[in-house]
Each structure stands twice: as C-alpha cells, then as structure tokens.
Amino acid sequence: MIRRTDQLHLGAFLANSGHHVAAWRHPEAQADASQDFEHFKRIAQTAERGKFDALFIADVVALWGHHIDALSRTARGEHFEPLTLLSALAAVTDRIGLIATATTTYNEPYHIARKFASLDHLSKGRAGWNLVTSVVSDEAWNFGREQHVEHADRYQRAEEFHDVVKGLWDSWDDDAFVRDKQSGLYFDPDKLHVLDHKGEHFSVRGPLNVARPPQGHPVLVQAGASSAGRHLAARVAEVIFVSHHDRAAGQAFYQDIKDQAARFGREPDAIKILPGITPFVGRSREHAQEQYEALQALIDPVVGLRLLADTLGEDIDLSGHDLDGPLPDTPVGQRGSRRDQVIALARRENLSIRQLYLRLAGGNPAIGTASDIADIFEDWFQSRACDGFNVFFPTFPGGLDSFVDQVVPELQRRGLFRHDYQGRTLREHLGLRRPVNRFVGAASA
Ligand SMILES: Cc1cc2nc3c(=O)[nH]c(=O)nc-3n(C[C@H](O)[C@H](O)[C@H](O)COP(=O)(O)O)c2cc1C
After folding, report:
1. Domain 9-288+364-430 architecture
2. What are the tens digits of pLDDT across the range 130-154?
3. Domain spans of the chain, in order of start
4. Within a 13 Å sphere around the CA of 373, how many CA atoms are in the beta-carbon half?
5. For residues 235 and 233, what is the distance between their CA atoms, to the nearest angstrom?
6. Residues with CB under 6 A from ligand 1
7. pLDDT over 70 for what percent of the chain?
C-alpha cells in the first residue's frame, strides 16, 4: 500500500468532566465541571494548543435517559446547549474549529441555518454542524409526540432538511452587503436569492437573515452508519464520525463511503472519516492500564446495565439476567446501526453482560505510552481505515493534558500531524474546498 503523505485530522470531543461515564467520580475530576465555563475554556484552549482541527459537542434534546435510578448516578442529567457553549468558546479561542450537534428530527431548517451561519460569523469561519437524526427516543416527548419518528422517516426528513439548510446559506452572494455610506446602499438586491423551497417535509421561502457564512457553508459532519445514514453521509458529509472498534471494519466502511461518494461525483478527499478513540496515556503500559482500570472500577453496575440497555433498544430490561452470563436475545428497536455492532461484538467475543457494559463504557480504548498510541493512530491512518480520529478523552482536564503534552508531539515527530495551523477556518484545517454559491450567475430575487 502506498504510504500516505497527508496528515491526520483530530477532533476533541468535549464532555463535562470527561467522556467516561464515571469520569465525574475520578479523584482529580471537578464534579461540577458541567456548569463551569472556565473549565470548558481551559479545555478549548488546551485543545487549540494541541492544534486540534476542532472541538466537537454531542447533543440530546432531552434528559439522556429516563431511568432515574441510573441517570442520577451519572453526570448526564445536565449539559449546555452546544451552539450556546461554542459561541462563548469562539470568543476565547482563535483557530480551533467548533462543531455542534443539532438534530434534523426535532428542529426546523431555518433555525439551524441561521444559528450555524451566526456561529460561523462569530468565529470567523470555524463552525461545523454534526447533523444527527436523534438517537434518543425520549426527545419525542419534548416535541409534541408520543413516539419517536421511525428510523427511515427520520432519514428522509434529514435529507430534505439538509438541502434546505444549504440552500438558505446561499441566500446571499459573498459580496452582497456593500454597506456603502456614500450611496446609501446597504446591500445589493441583485445579490439576494430567495430559496422558495416546497418539499415533502418543509416549505421554506427564505432568504436567510444572516450574510453568507465565511466558509460558504459551515462544515457538514454526519455520524450515521446504517445504509440510510451512509447514503446521506456519502452524498453530503465532509466529516464522518464512526464508532468502529476494529481496523478491518474501519477499512470496509472507509472504502464503502468513498466508493458511494464517487457515485455522487465527489472526490474521496472531500470526506474525512474519523473513528472515535479513547486514549489512556501512561508513563508506561502498566501505568496506562492502571488508569483505565481505576476508572472502570468506578462504574456503578446500575449505570453499566443501563448503558447497555440504552444501546440495545427501547426499554430493554436486563436486570433479571445474571451479570456474568451471556447477553440474551433482544428485540429489534429503532436504535439504528449501533445496536447491531454491539450485539455482534458480544457474540464474536463471547462476552458476559458485565464484560459487555464495561467494554461499552470504556469506549474504543487505546491504552499505553504515547508511542503505543501514536502507533495505533499511524496504523489505522496508513491502512486507510480513517483520515484521523475523534478523540474521546476519558477525563478532563487530565486525559486531554496528557494527550496534548505527550501524544501530539509524538505524532508531530512522525510527520503525521501539523506543528501549527496553516489556515484560519475549519475548512482550511480539514483541507476542504469552500463551496460556491448555487445562485451565482443565476437570476436574483
Ligand atoms: C461519534 C458519534 C457521535 C454521535 N453524536 C450524536 C449526538 O450527539 N446526538 C444524536 O442524537 N446522535 C448522535 N450520534 C448518532 C448518529 O448520528 C445517528 O443519528 C444514529 O447513529 C442513528 O443513525 P444510524 O442508524 O444511521 O447509525 C452519534 C454517533 C456517533 C458515531
């Protein structure tokens, strides 16, 4: 295989006191980190010092689980709204990209187009939108529905939602706002475009009341892995987050997406595929393993079981089963591809319920010295299983600090990662083209 000469792209997953479900209980954790802007500021600035492409914030528009016995033992009962937090972080950072999650299932395209265009302006071209179709069914209850929208319908809506948002971002030519005091002309009417969209799910006239974003369009991120999810990703995504734990599955996904994208006339380089990885960096392998086990030991079984049940499907109750016995057959729910991956993992490795929830809680761990972790990054990257990683730090700030101080320099030494930002926008960090306005050259409003 030809050795790649491009470089890794790294996203830093921002989560209260850490990504690990027991992170808030870690002796060094700030238990109330979720409410402390100074905490997030410090994380963002450290990730920027580490030259990360972007910060990423996940989102659920509900409590992340309705089983209060388990939820009350996690830090998941509260999190800031991502666009609000990223807007504040835009003011205390300079270069790092800012990717927020927003669902197409319980939003309207005009709101989303407007918010991300605003974040792109506020941050001078650093915004990204992680387009999701809502993985947590409880969200339905907050938006006038008894039941979650079906998986296939969610994706149909998402496809149209996306097209409307992109159309709204093209409401203005890049140079529409002349703001000429002399002539008294604020904007050039010939450079204003009305979308006039009428589709199956949306009727949106436009135009948007925010100028065209500095990046043309904020970067489009997607994380669905079902066939409907892959279709959308191959057609529109510029960054894809995935959750593969083994390299072969990563390679197959990578090839599939890049092949599908070619059928939409897209270049393979126009999509960056970033699997999640949870690094435990130690002075030695033993030290790293100790850190991993110390965190795993803090997982309450009530929380572990719920984590597993939530991944498997709606209201699956595993409490009557022996924790050290095999996973029983579970009914098919509306959860999507993640469920299938988890069941396949349990069967393949013959894991007990307890082992499976510990595995899930540990994420996709990379445990070792900085050099061991750099080896994994290099191996996946060079074997075209990915274009970089979305890094899930088990704890904040410790997990991020050790990565930035130890792993990043090792990646830089190997020529795998930038020593400094070359551009100013998230698109530039990712090596993505700035989209042209679809209306340029066409008749104006
Ligand atoms: C790294 C990663 C982050 C995700 N973040 C969110 C999120 O914040 N909110 C959400 O509702 N879904 C999230 N998802 C779920 C997916 O975007 C997708 O909606 C879900 O997996 C169902 O689609 P699928 O069946 O195509 O996989 C995430 C998935 C991955 C891999």
Report:
1. Alpha-Beta Barrel (3.20)
2. 999 998 889 999 999 999 999 999 9
3. 9-288+364-430
4. 31
5. 5
6. 58-60, 101, 103, 132-136, 223-226, 228-229, 241-243, 276, 336-338, 390
7. 97
